Amino acid sequence: MIGDGVPRLEDERLLRGQGCFLDDLHLEDCLEAAFVRSPYAHARIVSIDASAALALPGVVAVLTGVDAAGELEPMVFDIAKLVPDAVREATDPQVRIHPLPALPADRVTFAGQAVAMVVARDRYVAEDARELVQVEYDPLAVVVDAEEALRPDAPRVEPSWDDNVAISFRHEQGAVAEAFDSALAVVEETFRLQRQHASPIETRGVAASVDEDGSLLVWSSTQTPYLLQSFLGRWLPQPPESIRVRAPDVGGSFGSKHNCYPEDLLVPWAALRLGRAVKWTEDRGENLAASTHGRDQVHRIALAADADGRILAVRDSVVMNAGACNLLGLVVPYNTFTHLLGPYAVDSFEFDIRVVLTNTGIVAPYRGAGRPEAVFAMERALDRLARALELDPAELRARNLIRPEQLPYRTGLVYRDGNEAVYDSGDYPELLRRARELVELERFAPLASERRRLGVGYACYTEGTGVGPFESACVRIERSGRVTVLTGASSQGQGHRTTLAQIAAVALGVPVQDVDVVGGDSAALAQGFGTIASRTLVVAGNAVAEAAAAVRAQMLELSPEEVPRAGLSATSVYRPGPVTWAAGVHAAVVAVDVPTGVVEVLRFVVAHDCGRVVNPAIADGQVIGGVMQGIAGALYEEIVYDEDGLLLTGSFMDYALPTAAEMPEFALAHVDVPSPLNALGVKGLGEGGAIGPPAAVANAVEDALSELGVVVRTCPLSPSRVRELIRTAKVNTVDSAL
Amino acid sequence: MVEVVVNGRPFAAEAEPRLLLSDFLRHRLGLTGTHVGCEHGICGACTVLLDGEPVRSCLMFAVQADGAEIRTVEGLAAEDGPLHPVQQAFHELHGMQCGFCTPGFLLSLTALFEQQPDANEDELLDALSGNLCRCTGYANIVAAARRAQQLLAERA
User: Fold this and answer.
1) What per-residue confidence (pLDDT) applies to A730?
2) Chain A partners of B102 at a C-beta cutoff of 8 Å?
3) Which domains are seen in chain A, by residue range?
4) Which contacts of A709-712 are long-range, i.e. CB under 8 A and separated by 24 or more positions?
5) Of the candidates A17, A617, A652, which has its C-beta nearest B33's C-beta?
6) B2-75: CATH class
7) Looking at beta carbons, which residues of chain B come within 8 Å of A20?
8) Residue numbers in A near B94 (CB within 8 A)
9) pLDDT tens column, A45-79
10) What is the pTM of this model?
11) If we measure between CA atoms, which residue out of B97, B96, B115, B98 comes closest to residue B106?
């Protein structure tokens, strides 16, 4: 049953329109909130006059930073400050956290930041009143671009800091300078992966109600209800034990619903102050402006290679735009660092990164969380190297891949959890071989013409998955004979109700249809975490397997008739060791229409290793969904600010999500090597699909336009950008020692 | 007063002139299967059938629907009956993940197949391109659409 593509157990109610998402909740006597948001990227708040808003019938309250000042401290997450000892020893990261005020009293630092909360009879009235709140701003100097923010005279996002650098660290191993001195070929280039947005089709939302006994029930469209519960316990004037957080059905997340946001704090706070239920549903404009963004890194990368194309050394210097706050500390920049070398055997490596505050929306993990950025830089640089050496790009990769017999392979790096980063299992050459086989370029050759150029591009990656700290599960036999699985990991569409049920069903020897998986309620288990970072199958899956095995052992002591009456249950808290490494090779076949600059992805190939597969239909669905987000980043999507820090892509008319019409043909191959690090043998796969496509598509576009000497340095490869590349291309002058 | 027939049942309710049809269905009639993803007519999650035509219920006022016959996702299958073939196909072929955009896709396809039972590939993609999905990458949605067409043909 593990390995079966069981149709999902969660589908039927969703198909019948019986799901319950945040805005579907109808709490008794519920008020609705709307937020007044700053039109300026950086400004002093001179005054807020809510009198006209309060005079509007139906308005109950207008809360501002002045009200919050005594009660809600500026928010800092524990995880942001976390630097494991081994990480400190290895790279000595300098970490400064810029706290995020729930409602600022004096100053806004990005456009779209909430400055006042209107609570009214319904959302229509709340939005009317929002227009009546008079906020006087005194605009301040703005910095938008991360490299400009590094200049000594740049405006400071946080005036008490001496510069805008929030995080920096560096690492060196091997003999980098010697390798560059002795190399036959050196390429050096600057690549930027642009800012993007997760854009789940359900926006965020929060609802809160206060019970007669004063306890607080908070509903949030969060990925991590347990984390939010402990966060609210820390930041609200309310005893933690009387706060319960529930996540209803959640309509996609991709990282953007992991953070604890100001609204997560403000809606319950308003409910406590007013003694009434309050609900807030984000609109799309708010989602694009004030939910977290992703990517936005510039890499100055150099490769040194010998005559055969063997990489002798890699040097990379990164500037990451964090936006106005660095909510999650080291997570993204450290992922970039530990995934840059991917599946390649490289002894000498020098890396440094500066994470810089700017007056823009907050950058935090978005599907891939630092890895697509790293892979974009490395894989683009490899294609530049292949061109310099006149080698086939796939062949160049083949020569540098870590061979199966070299595993477990010690990278020499320390992962952000403090464990040594050791590739535990996989077969990278086989992944590449399978991908090359599936490209089938010859099939597309008849489509090529002088006008319509074909290209193929590859991208290889590794991904640390199943990161800690822990996840918990409780398996219980009900009197009805059905099995309940409680998990700390709630779902936002990943199909956990099916995969975790499959795991429990196998361990217990019961049909999968008899298992009910329940997640997303902080009151269900003593401790839990949530769904982030390609980890749920590993950490929650193994917790479920352990708890179910313990129940199975109890069952074996009883007769079948006694089992339902015995109240059997077991709880397991699974604490993983080091991450287990998934990997993949992506290949894109593209057609570029030279006169218009339109890029079409004709075929997208994925060879991937996600360990033992529990449900192939769900696994492939995760991969293809991730790939399509990656292709969207390669071709369509970009969060754009103007020089004053105003968001130019504040709606779906400007931030262009692809539709079914843009979907390429897909080909998938599994080269799954079970993980030796956990009993189930599984690896995470939620993010992998999104890691490779920007690099693979960019490589393919450059390949298609190689005769024109085009060099692709950033995405999205929109028609206008491709036309600009073609117009400005000179005959290829690779910076090479050849 | 707005009078509509929704999924075969007549409803009459007060509605301010500015009340969106999506909010009317969701919050006045309690039919929360119709979802709202962007409120500016791009994502298609709020798609319902108005006198048989797919419309964005976030771009219409409830008063504009006065006298109309509306179908929502709740009306595709009988409450205790089997799934509608379009729903069945999405289940069989894993055409959904979070399920938030799904009602809009189901209704867009229902309208397509009612009007053009033998829609070709281009017409199918054209009908699907009015709805955004962020989870699936569309591959299984397109496959489910083809399967639904086949199931409907078998039933006809």
Assistant:
1) 58
2) 14-15
3) 22-140+204-281 (3.90.1170.50), 171-198+291-466+579-728 (3.30.365.10), 468-574 (3.30.365.10)
4) A709/A733, A711/A189, A711/A384, A712/A380
5) A17
6) alpha beta
7) 32
8) 5, 7-8, 617-618, 621
9) 999 999 999 999 999 999 999 999 989 988 888 77
10) 0.97
11) B96
